[in-house]
Amino acid sequence: MNALSVRTKLTAWYGGLFLLAGLVLVVINYLLVQGTLPDPARFATASLGSAADTVYGIPDNAVQAPAGVAVRLVSGSLDEYRSSTLSTLVVNSAIALVATAALAVLFGWLMAGRALRPLHDITSAARRLEAGKLDRRINLEGPPDELKELADTFDGMLDRLAESFDSQKRFVANASHELRTPLAVQRTLIEVAMADPEVAPELRKLGTHLLHTNERSERMIEGLLVLARSDRGLTARAPVRLDQVVASVVRATSAQAESAGVKVETRLRPRTVAGDPVLLERLVTNLLVNAITYNAKGGWVYAEVRGDPALEVRNSGAVVPPEAVPTLFEPFRRVAGAERTGDTRNAGLGLSIVRSVAHAHGGAAEAQPGKRGGLTVTVRLPS
């Protein structure tokens, strides 16, 4: 429920309660006036009877006839006056009640807006928040009421989130060094040992397998670090020519595509997006490497940059079940039985990183199976 609907409901409650109170007041006023006005018949009889008693020397039968007519006349006039008075009272009260109810609704709307203004501030602050920009606070001024307590609680939560993200940044920075260094040393030692011409064939085979495992671990760690970095959001944005990034990545992966027997075609229109050039390059690289790796000999890859979506990468290959497509964006998930034309050293983080980078740029990544096999991945990015 948004703040506008809450404001409307509060206004309706204010106006409804005032209208109900006004109706009760009108009914009470009507009953009081009705009880105060005299009964026409009794008032006419009492008044004319007392006047007849003051006439001396006139026989009673001579007074009764004119008196009866006079009573009916006076009673009718008083009854008409009484009805007119009550009708006027009801009409004027209804007009006053409607006018006052309209003013009550107007003032209720204004008061509800003023009472809900802190909620608007809290909502605006929450919408402006990003993983890399947690320095905004509400700092609500006012008496220590429930809304002030809510705003202070929200500010305290933001303080804890900012501290948590700072801790995560430090952890990623430390992990980047502590995890890469041992693997680099291990790879160097294996390569030095395998460089000895007197190494036995069994040890050389073992060293090759260890290098394969070591490189896969390095790629997995690199992918996890990129995933953690993109999940934190962007600290800064710069104009990036997406078409130029795609062209550069296509050149960089041309050797892999040629080795896999896959033909890469492109259609690149000029498109500028605001973001991190390193993360965007990683997004494009993962898409093209995935499209080449999960393909078939003699297959094809088609990459297009345009308006919306900003990037689309299609490839041939094995048929992808529609129910398996959503799981491809989860870490370490692959389609069971999918054939590969490239190496097997990927860590299963490619599309997870693509989706995370797209979200960090305020966009989205989607996939759907191709009509004749393969996959189509679209990436939407704001200009």
UniProtKB/TrEMBL annotation:
Regions that span the bilayer: 12-33, 89-110
Residue stretches making up the HAMP domain: 113-166
Any one GO MF annotation of this record: ATP binding
Domain Histidine kinase: 174-383
PROSITE patterns registered for this protein in UniProt: HAMP, HIS_KIN
Location(s) in or outside the cell: Cell membrane
The protein's name in its UniProt record: histidine kinase
Lineage: Bacteria, Bacillati, Actinomycetota, Actinomycetes, Pseudonocardiales
